[in-house]
User: Fold this.
Amino acid sequence: MLTCMEPALDIAQSAASTDPDVGLRAVASLRALTERLEIVQVENARKLGWSWQDIAGRLGVTRQTVHRKHGKRIGSR
Assistant:
């Protein structure tokens, strides 16, 4: 399992690079990874019956924000 995380850890370390080209590319990669992970976890939470409010609270956003971002793709279940 740790081997699956190594690329993400490498990217995270690269984000702290003093070379702006390396650092900014790593930040962009982390942003894309974070978006994909959020989608997976919001879907998991909705499948388990979590409310939009519960999800929003964990993400530190409003219910409206999380519903607007994920509601159409996941559905209002």
User: Anything to note?
Assistant: The mean pLDDT is 90.
